[in-house]
């Protein structure tokens, strides 16, 4: 699956990258990313996840063809 | 006859909600007059150099553009349902924005000023808390800092629940 990250997350991950493995849902993906990059764990905890430009819950099932956006807390304006 | 629900999109429909170009405050205001609106409020959120120690050079705004645009539209639609608005529009910058430039503009027009002010605060408040838009401060010493995050989650325990400046009793 393809992961896109934004803002402060780009300090921890490439802006867009592929991740392989048997990740059944968003919660599993989040855990895997925190294992890969423990320094990002606290930031990831504050983020929301979106699939097809819609926010999804931690139990949302993901597939290898999905593009998942990781959305940190807003700081616009 | 144009249905009243279309009176806002008549202004906003052709206006992108995000802009990589400087916001044309005067041009947008010029489009925001309506024969039934006795009050027009324009809010411009501008880049300030709030830390003389570190010296902000400029800001850079990034957005998840599809989601941010959709959400700003939704916020404007919600505002039009909540308040008797004749015009509601909002536009946010992306990319590099210099000190004193406008990063976000919200214009509301209504028959009377109370609603125009309230609706304007409602819209900017929700954009700041909810829209997937982020700012990064670039300092003159070459460092940068992602800043000013919405921290409501620490208070509400839910990433989707925010503590707004605007409240119903200020309506």
TrEMBL record, chain A:
Annotated membrane-spanning segments are: none
UniProt-listed SUPFAM superfamilies: MoaD/ThiS
This protein's superkingdom? Bacteria
Q: Please identify the protein, giving its name as recorded.
A: Molybdopterin synthase sulfur carrier subunit
Query: Taxonomic lineage of this organism?
Result: Bacteria, Pseudomonadati, Bacteroidota, Sphingobacteriia, Sphingobacteriales
A Pfam family annotated for this chain is ThiS
Q: Which InterPro entries match?
A: Beta-grasp_dom_sf, Mopterin_synth/thiamin_S_b, ThiS/MoaD-like
**Organism (species):** Mucilaginibacter arboris
UniProtKB/TrEMBL annotation, chain B:
Oligomer and partners: Heterotetramer of 2 MoaD subunits and 2 MoaE subunits. Also stable as homodimer. The enzyme changes between these two forms during catalysis.
EC number(s) on file: 2.8.1.12
Q: Which SUPFAM superfamilies match?
A: Molybdopterin synthase subunit MoaE
Q: Which residues form a coiled coil?
A: none
What is the scientific name of the source organism? Mucilaginibacter arboris
- Provide the protein name: Molybdopterin synthase catalytic subunit
Report a single Gene Ontology molecular function: molybdopterin synthase activity
Annotated GO biological process: Mo-molybdopterin cofactor biosynthetic process
In terms of domain of life, where is this protein from? Answer: Bacteria
Q: Which UniProt keywords apply?
A: Molybdenum cofactor biosynthesis
Query: Its catalytic activity?
Result: 2 [molybdopterin-synthase sulfur-carrier protein]-C-terminal-Gly-aminoethanethioate + cyclic pyranopterin phosphate + H2O = molybdopterin + 2 [molybdopterin-synthase sulfur-carrier protein]-C-terminal Gly-Gly + 2 H(+)
Which pathway, metabolic or otherwise, does it act in?
A: Cofactor biosynthesis; molybdopterin biosynthesis
The main enzyme category here is transferase
